[in-house]
Amino acid sequence: MKKKIVATSSRPGATNAIIPPIERLIKEGKVKVVTIGHESSEEILQEEGIPHRTIGHYGLEGVSYRLYENLIRTRAA
After folding, report:
1. Are strands 3-9 and 53-54 parallel, antiparallel or unpaired?
2. How is the chain split into domains, by residue range?
């Protein structure tokens, strides 16, 4: 079973910063990358062709460290 990496961002600068590592990890295929978009990052990820889900996909309406921690431990797939 591949290890899983969860990448998320909601701001344009941070989203643009994580795109190159996400693309590299996907290309290498050694880990499963789960990318979660929120707010302005959704459009950027879409434009860059990065497979992603939104927080709404996981039933979340907002974000916080605790919510993401629970998501990662229980449902990110």
Report:
1. unpaired
2. 3-74
**What angle, rounded to 10 degrees, do the helices at 41-48 and 12-28 form?**
40
CB environment 4-39: b (16+ within 10 A), e (fewer): ebebbbeeeeebeebbeebeebeeeeeeebbbbbbe
Residue 65, both tokens:
């460290």
Q: What is the pTM of this model?
A: 0.80
Strand order in the sheet with 3-9: 3-9, 31-37, 53-54
Percent of the chain with pLDDT over 90: 52
- Report residue 45 as tokens: 């990820």
Q: Over the stretch 18-51, which tens digit does the pLDDT of each residue have?
A: 999 999 999 999 999 999 998 899 999 999 999 9
Residue 9, beta-bridge partner list? 37
